[in-house]
Write a structure and sequence with these properties.
2 helices; elongated; about 350 residues; mainly beta; about 5% helix
């Protein structure tokens, strides 16, 4: 059967050239505003409507099963598209940069939301993900800054890097059990999220996973995670308290940097390493207990108001217990410290 293919064709020839043997049949055509794909088509080819800048509405008939990559990329006026239930596959960037697309209904038989499918669809406000999809690809909803509500189905087992980065208006998000990783930048700059549940199935956090979630007040870190990586929770300004579970052995560079309202953090006894800038500019943090197993602390790890090499640092008071390394670190860096009451020791006691 037919396929809409790739080749520049003047607007007056559109209807007569459906059987062209090249992808991109309407690429860069600027005069078409509304279009109904004829019956009998089974595929929308790669770059078929690429940069059709005046295309506002398109209807795809029953029988089409595949929308190939970049099919509607940069259709900057596209507001509405009707996708039939017969479509089982939509490829990467199919709706990339469709800046006026506000709402779309996806067919029930999709198994995957591919890479950059709705990236830069900055007018998209609402979307329902079909039950049965198993994966949300890298940057799938990147910079969908007006997306208000989205529910991730229980069937989803993987989400991609930066998949929701810059979705500024999402308020609440529930991630399903079965996801094992929150990858790099997945929810970075989601400034509106104030409620988020990380499932216990998650074993790995990526760098910048929740960086810039400015409205997030509280988060529970699953017990199976062993490392909080670089900038994972940096600039989470609304955090007031963080509980880090046992099993975490490493806090990465800038892990909680600029979390300016954190007043208390409970570090686990399993912790061994605190990287540089881990709590940089956590200006409200007044005390911090350093567990006995910590044997590595990076530069400016606790600088509460560090502004540059020529300014005087301010630090929280470090509480140490049976930890020569933390005690020595505090002394060498002129950081205030105290022993817990049952361990009222001095450096000389450690050196005996």
């Amino acid at each position: 059967m037919g396929k809409i293919y790739e080749q520049y064709i003047p607007s007056e020839q559109l209807v007569s050239r459906f059987e062209a043997k090249y992808d991109g049949i309407y690429e860069t055509v600027t005069t078409v505003r509304e279009f109904a794909v004829p019956q009998g088509m089974e595929e929308i080819g790669e770059k078929a409507f690429f940069k059709c800048k005046n295309l506002r509405k398109i209807t795809i008939p029953k029988g089409v099963h595949t929308i190939h990559k970049k099919a509607f990329e940069a259709c900057s006026a596209l507001e509405e598209i009707i996708i039939p239930k017969s479509v089982t596959k939509i490829e990467a960037r199919a709706f990339y940069d469709c800046k006026k697309l506000k709402k779309i209904i996806l067919p029930d038989n999709l198994l995957e939301i591919p890479r950059s499918l709705f990236e830069n669809c900055c007018a998209l406000e609402e979307i329902k993900l079909p039950e049965g999809i198993t994966k949300i690809g890298d940057r799938a909803f990147f910079d969908c800054k007006n997306l208000v509500d989205i529910r991730i189905p229980e069937s989803v087992k993987a989400i991609g890097a930066q998949s929701f980065k810059g979705c500024r208006k999402i308020r609440k998000l529930e991630l399903p059990e079965g996801i094992s990783e929150i990858p790099y930048g997945a929810f970075c700059s989601c400034v509106g999220i104030n409620e988020l549940t990380i499932p216990q199935s998650v074993k790995t956090l990526g760098e910048q996973a929740f960086c810039g979630c400015e409205s997030l007040e509280h988060i529970e870190i699953p017990k199976g995670i062993t490392e909080i990586p670089k900038y994972a929770f940096a600039c989470c300004y609304s955090f007031t308290e963080v509980v880090i579970p046992e099993g975490i052995t490493e806090l990465g560079e800038g892990a909680f940097e600029h979390c300016r309202n954190i007043q208390a953090i409970r570090l686990p006894n399993s912790l061994e390493s605190i990287a540089k800038d881990a709590f940089l500019n956590c200006a409200s943090l007044y005390w911090l207990y350093i567990p006995a197993n910590v044997r590595e602390i990076g530069s400016r790890a606790f600088s509460a108001r560090w502004k540059g090499v020529d300014t005087v640092d301010e630090f929280p008071t470090l509480q140490v217990r049976d930890n020569f390394y933390a005690f020595r670190y505090a002394k060498e860096n002129k950081i205030p410290y105290q022993f817990l009451p049952e361990h009222n020791r001095t450096l000389n006691d450690f050196e005996k």
